Structure formats: structure tokens, C-alpha cells
Amino acid sequence: MKGPVITVGGPHGTGKSTYASALATALGLRYVCAGELFRELAKEKKLSLEKLSELAAKDPAIDKMIDERTKGEAKDGGVVIDAQLGAWMARDLADVKVFIQAPDRVRFKRIAERDRISVASARRETLAREEIQKRRYKKYYGINVDDLSIYDLKFNAGLFPLEKMKKIVIDNVRNFLAKKSVK
């Protein structure tokens, strides 16, 4: 058996990567991060994430490359996929689709710290990037990222301290998988 496929999605700065990595470690699964691939591509092209998002809005090949990798990883199984469109790309291959959210003030602070920029810059760049992505996902795939009905489990990462939230997410995913395997 290949092992379960878990997707973790949500807006930028919610802690998707932190939770996806914690899930992979706790469940002994591989970890794949589409956002990291996008960041690496931006560095290679010497572009900001916002500029690469604008380029991707004009060139669907950028998204297609990342999305095909996501689909391939889901087919291989035994993986936690950290990707904004992971739930849509994995579709029925995913055993559980997790959505992570957090208040904007928390998101922008995390992004500012990670990228070593001001909170105001993080806010401006993130909102611009998310708006471009929202239009792009609708145009290329017909996906409305504001429709959360595709997700099995939804968490607000701003409710509790990080370690407590990790435990909550991991325990709930384990329980979901256990109940699903009984059916």
C-alpha cells in the first residue's frame, strides 16, 4: 500500500508549510511543497513572488508545471502535499484535504518575518499576489478559491499557540483517516 495522500491548503502566511511538515513527520509520509517550488522559480528568474505571479497570469505553463508535479506526487501516494491548489489537483486521490486559515494580521506578520520585509510590505505584496492568483485560478481552472467546500477539515491557526495547534491538526487528521478506513 502506498500510504495516504493529504493535501494542506490555505492563504499565504497561515502556516500551511509548518502544519504540512508536522503532519508528514507525525505520520511518516513524504512532504512536498508547491510554494517552495514557486519561490525557487522566482529566485532562478530573479523575480519577486508578486512579479512571478504576474508572469504566471500571462503564461499558464508556470502553473501547469507545478500542478502536474502535484498530481504526480498524489498518484505516488504516501505524501503530504503543501499547495494552494493541492486539494483540486489531487481531487479523488486525496484521502483528506485540510484547509488552514489565520487572521490577516497573523499572516502578514509571519510573511514579514519569513521574507525579512516590513509588515506593510508583506500586506501589500501578499494581497496583490493573492488577487492575481485568484483571477488566474479562475481563468485557467475554473476554481474559486473562496469556495472551501472541497476541504474535509478546516482549522484557524490563530486560535492557539503553534504546538497546541499542531497537535490539534495531527490528531484530527489521524481521526479522520481512521474513520475513513473503517468505512
Short characterization:
With 183 residues, the protein is an alpha/beta fold.
Topology:
Blueprint: E1 5-9, H1 16-27, E2 30-33, H2 34-44, H3 49-58, H4 60-76, E3 79-82, H5 86-90, E4 96-101, H6 104-115, H7 119-141, E5 153-156, H8 162-182
Features:
183 residues, 13% strand, 8 helices, alpha/beta
Describe the structure.
The chain is of the alpha/beta class. Helices cover 61% and strands 13% of the residues. The protein has a 5-stranded parallel β-sheet, with helices on both faces. Helix 3 packs across helix 4. The mean pLDDT is 92.
Q: Give the CA-based shape.
A: globular
Q: Report the β-strand fraction as a percent range.
A: 5-15%
Tell me the radius of gyration.
16 Å
Number of strands: 5
What is the percent of helical residues? 55-70%
What is the oligomer described by this structure? single chain
Q: What's the end-to-end separation, in Å?
A: 17 Å
Return the average pLDDT rounded to an integer.
92
Count of helix runs: 8
Strand order of the largest sheet: 2-3-1-4-5
Structural class: alpha/beta
Largest sheet composition = 5 strands, parallel
Report low-confidence residues grouped into runs of 5 or more.
none
SSE arrangement, N to C: EHEHHHEHEHHEH
